[in-house]
Amino acid sequence: MKKIAILGSTGSIGKNTLDVIRHHPDNFKAVGLSVCSDIGTLDKQIKEFKPYFVCVKDKEAGFKLIKKISPKIKVFVGEEGLNYLVREKKIDQIMFAISGSAALEPLINAIDAGKDIALANKEALVMAGPIIMDMASKKNVNILPVDSEQSAIWQCLKNEEKVKLKNIYLTASGGSLKDFTRQAIKKVSLKTVLKHPRWKMGKKITVDSATLMNKGLEVLEAMFLFNVSSKNIKVLIHPEALIHSMVEFIDGIIIAQISATDMRIPIQYALSFPERLPGNFDAPDFFKLSKLHFEKPDFDKFPCLRLAYQAADTLGTLPCVLNAANEVAVGEFLKEKLRFVDISSLVEKVMLKHKVKNKPSLEDIRDADSWAKQEAYKCLP
């Protein structure tokens, strides 16, 4: 029985993780749950899954929850509370389903505590990938990718020597604006951007998918997870989203991972690894498939992907700055205070102002993140 804590249990990944646990009660137990402020949904999850620990980031909401749940459940409150929860001895593995840079500090604390990580958050690795991977290696901690693309690469690389790897092909659906013209993109609405054609995801990642920044962040994530150069990571637009990524070896062999567009599939594998468990997922019906399409990404129409490759080529503190500026830009777009086309412009302005620090420490990363967010607000049109 593997004891799982889920950080971000009321979001899309968190709910899907609980569904996997629900279908495998003999294999997994949800012992820890954390949310930002949605204590209504959390209360329902507590009643069903009976965790030992919960954490609420919003302190006012957290204190309300304390008054209404069993005193047997240990309640942590605030950002500092999350850093304590991840160190609890009864936790075997932690699902990181928190969005954005907020995952960095609890991730560092979880690795320091020796917990295996199921990682659905890409931003923390983008910010501090070399530091995180080095720390995980020293602590003998497994970081198991949950993003469908990274999970696909991980499975394709299994039992293969990294020196035999030639290229990684990261597939992307193309997002909600794939077929829009450049002129149409200038006038696109928030409602249109949030209509993803394949995946049901949170708002921030859906916007990132539309700008192709999500794929750019995945390029950086793959570099750190699999220790490869950005030059060996190619992005392919694949609208059907059935091939989740591919790996090409030096002998010309390409291995692809194919499955339905259901996040429970990579979630379950990250939880059950090294075993595979039965799943109640529909497999693709190959007899109904007529074609699979692949296209080159348009770097001019979606400049965020170009900026991500620029950060990947430079490294140091630049990936952190890219991520921080993008968080501010997307946040302002979601408030309808920024146009869609201004997201990439704002990110680029902040990147150009930044003085890159090579081989940064964790403190350098924190400083770069804070600086970039402040600078992004200053640069808002």
Q: Which percent bin holds the helix content? A: 40-55%
Strand order of the largest sheet: 4-3-2-1-5-6-7
Q: Count every helix, treating DSSP H or I runs of 4 or more residues as helices.
A: 16
Write the CATH fold name of the largest domain: Rossmann fold
- Please tell me what the overall shape is: globular
| CATH class assignment of the largest domain | Alpha Beta
Low-confidence stretches at least 5 residues in length (pLDDT < 50)?
none
Q: What average pLDDT do the residues reach?
A: 95
Structure keywords:
about 375 residues; alpha/beta; Rossmann fold; 2 domains; seven-stranded parallel β-sheet; four-stranded mixed β-sheet; 16 helices; 11 strands; about 45% helix; about 15% strand
Task: Describe the protein's architecture and organization.
This protein is of the alpha/beta class and 381 residues long. The protein folds into 2 domains: 2-145, Rossmann fold; 150-261 and 294-315, no CATH class. 46% of the residues lie in helices and 15% in strands. The protein contains 16 helices and 11 strands. It has helices at residues 12-23, 39-49, 59-68, 78-85, 104-112, 123-138, 148-157, 182-185, 190-193, 203-211, 213-226, 264-272, 303-314, 318-334, 342-353, 362-378, and strands at residues 2-7, 28-35, 53-56, 74-77, 93-96, 116-119, 143-145, 165-172, 233-237, 243-249, 254-258. Strands 4-3-2-1-5-6-7 form a 7-stranded parallel beta sheet, sandwiched between helices. Strands 9-8-10-11 form a 4-stranded mixed beta sheet, with helices on one face. Helix 14 packs antiparallel against helix 15 and helix 14 (318-334) runs parallel beside helix 16 (362-378).
